[in-house]
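re: the backbone from monday

yeah here it is again, tokenized this time
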């Protein structure tokens, strides 16, 4: 009996040790994994964007709280923003939402989930959006041979254009996770961050790549760079972030 209990305890400890932090950054594509119940995670970063002579820097942050076996609450913002050419500064809108993981993934089946988000007009200056903007995305991730992984995200978002007319845009992205070592991973991604008509902002499409370094089971440092693939997309974007789980 004592031997059985010892083996069970050892298995539980090993299983817990294998549950490394899994942030929804630095790529654009969100994964279906959710926070364990009672666990809290903050994903903070600095971001820089260049489009012609315009420069923009921001401090995006995402807070995630596990509230059940397969559900998490989310709160996010672009933080403090400063733009040059034309000059402007302010804070980003606050977004609230939840993620539901409907299926755990393994080598035989993909992980599946849904992500609901609602942007609120709580920002300041030119960075304040128009009204409430809901978004719903379907998330899937496959475990591939050689420890590769493939994630996809497809969804719809409702927003308002400069004429205050409501429109619906699509979101579609694919990201390939690439192991580069025991604690180091990379990714390559193609992302349609917004697929809309020209009068509603056009198509925002990027190609991205980056690295994530697992410092501990509860901490990750990452960086990524994104290249705009058309005229509606900023030329370049770069981010550096730190994610901590509690």
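seq for it, each position gets an aa:
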């Amino acid at each position: 009996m004592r031997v059985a209990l010892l083996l069970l305890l050892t298995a539980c400890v090993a299983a817990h040790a294998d549950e490394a932090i899994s942030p929804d950054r630095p790529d654009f594509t969100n994964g279906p994994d959710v926070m364990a119940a009672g666990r809290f995670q903050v994903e903070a970063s600095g971001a820089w964007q260049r489009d012609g002579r315009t420069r923009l820097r921001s401090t995006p942050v995402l807070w995630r709280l596990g509230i059940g076996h397969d559900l998490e609450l989310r709160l996010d913002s672009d933080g403090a923003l400063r733009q040059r050419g034309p000059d402007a500064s302010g804070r980003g809108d606050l977004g609230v939402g939840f993620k539901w993981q409907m299926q755990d993934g393994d080598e035989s089946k993909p992980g599946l989930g849904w992500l609901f988000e609602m942007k609120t007009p709580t920002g300041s200056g030119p960075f304040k959006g128009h009204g409430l903007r809901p978004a719903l995305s379907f998330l899937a991730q496959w475990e591939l041979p050689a420890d590769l992984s493939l994630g996809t995200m497809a969804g719809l978002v409702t927003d308002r254009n400069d004429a205050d007319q409501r429109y619906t845009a699509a979101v579609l992205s694919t990201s390939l996770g690439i192991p580069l070592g025991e604690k180091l991973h990379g990714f390559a991604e193609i992302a349609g961050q917004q697929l809309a008509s020209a009068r509603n902002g056009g198509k925002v499409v990027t190609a991205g790549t980056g690295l994530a370094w697992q410092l501990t089971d509860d901490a990750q440092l990452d960086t990524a760079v994104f290249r705009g693939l058309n005229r509606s997309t900023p030329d370049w974007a770069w981010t550096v972030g730190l994610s901590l789980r509690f």
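The longest helix spans residues 2-18. Residues 21-245 form a domain with the Porin fold (CATH 2.40.160.40).
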